[in-house]
Amino acid sequence: MKLALTSDSQLPVTDKEVEAGLQWVIKMYQQADTKDVGVVREYFAEEAKVHFGNAPPITGTTAIEGLFAWEYSAVESLDHVIRDIRVLHDKIMVTLEAIYTFKSGVEKTAKCLAVWHKTPQTERASGTDLYGDFTDVFKELIAAGGAPPVWK
């Protein structure tokens, strides 16, 4: 076994930093649930990267907006249920469920872990890594709107 830590995650965070991180997560997901593509430019840095598991990254706010617009166009509603938030010095980890109610009436839930690359003080994330099984969700999204615009 080799321990090769590459971040400052082990540094302590203050109560003020924890609260700032919690509020950022809550506000971001509240806005995302309104299906407002403006969430991208408000919460993502210009060259941010979004990773869904091992899929190629989606890079830049324009591409991320395209992904969100594609998702939002297929769903009647999107509800995030946050189960846990861990604020670290260099990232915020969120355990959640994303509940997609499609315009077809079908409902699919994806349980996931979102790792947001940002400090508690920064306004915008440089990226997020999303881990979970999105297979059923993506099947419905593709059925409603074709292939994701960022992976065509």
UniProtKB/TrEMBL annotation:
Lineage: Eukaryota, Fungi, Dikarya, Basidiomycota, Agaricomycotina
Residues in SnoaL-like domain copies: 27-117
InterPro entries reported for this sequence: NTF2-like_dom_sf, SnoaL-like
Source organism per UniProt: Laccaria amethystina LaAM-08-1
The protein's name: SnoaL-like domain-containing protein
